[in-house]
């Protein structure tokens, strides 16, 4: 690829602002983003100008170009201050996608500042990375137990066969329970926090206030763990970098919460969906018990972060058929790159078959998901998916795949619901049995202490504990220890 290291864009070559742009977020994009990527590719080549809520953005579509943007951080900068349109105050007022980018944390730092921040994440996460340390072992056991408890609750509420939403009744509460434990939250995190993260990522009209709420909760958590350290990620981040202020640690936790709840949850749902919709190669990997392969294959077809975070050109550079000007905004599309990769599976880029590990769902280059976080997330996804396969004798979608409700947004390819008709197997966990919910109050070790100090981490929607599945969950996790300390 020609990058013309020191060349400036030739006079007269089209600029992003001068090109007509097609809005990316349409109902067609919600239902069939692949067709939109293909049309853009056939019109413009590997890089296309698109409109994102009224702002022109370069969307990078081909695998080779996406990899170049992800790997070359000297040209493709992360700090939003490199964005010319923002610096020149040309963005629409309250442009909803900006809220998340104004939260200055590891992902949006460059150079030495980025390397130091990344190291803090890495060392704080390392104890949880594998099952050899006490923290790693305990977390693994907890994830499996939470999954079993949720399946038992489902059986208690809806019977051993019936209808369920595997997004709202299984995946989201599971990840909230994991986050509560891993982060050392003294009060339970509620579904409301996940909805705020959706609002921020999808660019909802209230993205700004939603971001502030989630950030506020994480900052209070940081302050709490500073005064009461435990064996959790928040406390380990402080150990790793004691100079972190509550506000900065809150920002880092906020970003981790996005990945741990929303992105990990989407990887669980998207993997389950590929199996349920009958993707033959995905199913074959399930049949042979290769869950890691199942997740990789599903991530190739439908990566949870369809389009990665924006990059900003550090100088004029040619990419695809265009000259990108210094300060232009660029969005690398993992979903489009994967389509390209699958289409060229037998070409020069990959050997005779595409390795499923060539997927870019974890990113690539200096900002890729840190290895400890990947291990952790991979364990959570395979456990969550594996427990469903283990305990469900049958599960089928209750909607045709092309009628499933997807979220509208540029970043995440996520289902609003994953509705199934199910039948549990004979050995599935049942509420009340030893080890089932009710027997498990306090599974979130470290939770429940000093909850009052964090009042407002998660607003409680329906009184103490609430009703229905989430209420049962709250009682299960915190038992009689709520508000103690
Ligand atoms: C299945 C779940 C996950 C997926 C698919 C995923 C994917 C990614 C991707 C694609 C990036 C790079 C984004 C970009 O370059 O624009 C990233 C970065 C990151 N992820 Fe993950 N991630 C997952 C889970 C997690 C978890 C559980 C954590 C921590 C609790 C985490 C922590 C991070 C951090 C700290 C970064 C920023 C790295 C940097 O900028 O240097 N991730 N992740």
Automatic annotation (TrEMBL):
Disordered: annotated span: 1-20
- Record family assignment: Belongs to the cytochrome P450 family.
Protein name from the UniProt record: Cytochrome
Source species of the chain: Streptomyces heilongjiangensis
């Amino acid at each position: 690829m020609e990058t013309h290291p020191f060349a400036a864009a030739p006079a007269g070559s089209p600029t992003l602002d001068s090109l007509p742009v097609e809005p990316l977020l349409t109902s067609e994009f919600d239902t069939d983003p692949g067709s939109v990527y293909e049309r853009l590719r056939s019109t413009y080549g590997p890089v296309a100008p698109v409109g994102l809520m009224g702002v022109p953005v370069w969307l990078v579509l081909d695998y080779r170009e996406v990899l170049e943007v992800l790997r070359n951080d000297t040209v493709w900068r992360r700090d939003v201050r490199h964005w010319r349109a923002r610096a020149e105050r040309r963005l629409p007022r309250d442009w909803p996608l900006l809220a998340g980018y104004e939260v200055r944390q590891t992902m949006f730092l460059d150079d030495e500042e980025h390397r130091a921040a990344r190291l803090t994440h890495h060392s704080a996460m390392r104890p949880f990375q594998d099952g050899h340390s006490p923290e790693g072992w305990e977390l693994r056991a907890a994830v499996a137990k939470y999954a079993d408890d949720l399946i038992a609750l489902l059986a208690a509420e809806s019977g051993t066969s019936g209808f369920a939403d595997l997004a709202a009744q299984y995946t989201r509460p599971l990840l909230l329970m994991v986050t509560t434990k891993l982060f050392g939250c003294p009060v339970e995190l509620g579904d409301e926090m996940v909805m705020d993260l959706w609002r921020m990522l999808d660019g909802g009209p209230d993205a700004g206030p939603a971001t502030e709420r989630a950030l506020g909760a994480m900052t209070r958590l940081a302050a709490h763990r500073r005064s009461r350290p435990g064996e959790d990620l928040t406390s380990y981040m402080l150990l790793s970098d004691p100079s972190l202020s509550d506000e900065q640690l809150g920002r880092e936790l906020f970003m981790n919460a996005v990945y741990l709840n929303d992105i990990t949850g989407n990887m669980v749902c998207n993997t389950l969906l590929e199996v349920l919709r009958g993707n033959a190669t995905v199913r074959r990997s399930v049949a042979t018990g290769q869950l890691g392969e199942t997740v990789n294959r599903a991530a190739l077809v439908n990566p949870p972060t369809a389009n990665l975070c924006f990059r900003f050109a550090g100088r004029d550079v040619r990419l695809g058929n265009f000259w990108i000007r210094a300060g232009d905004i660029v969005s690398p599309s993992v979903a489009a790159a994967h389509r390209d990769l699958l289409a060229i599976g037998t070409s020069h880029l990959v050997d005779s078959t595409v390795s499923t590990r060539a997927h870019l769902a974890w990113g690539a280059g200096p900002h890729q998901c840190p290895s400890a976080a990947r291990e952790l997330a991979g364990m959570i996804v395979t456990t969550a998916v594996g427990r469903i396969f283990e305990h469900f004798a049958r599960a089928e979608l209750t909607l045709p795949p092309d009628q499933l409700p997807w979220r509208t947004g540029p970043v995440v390819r996520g289902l609003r619901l994953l509705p199934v008709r199910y039948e549990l197997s004979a050995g599935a966990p049942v509420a009340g049995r030893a080890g089932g919910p009710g027997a498990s109050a306090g599974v979130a070790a470290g939770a429940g202490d000093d909850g009052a100090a964090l009042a407002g981490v998660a607003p409680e929607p329906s009184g103490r504990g609430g009703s229905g599945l989430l209420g049962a969950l709250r009682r299960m996790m915190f038992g009689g220890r709520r508000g103690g300390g």
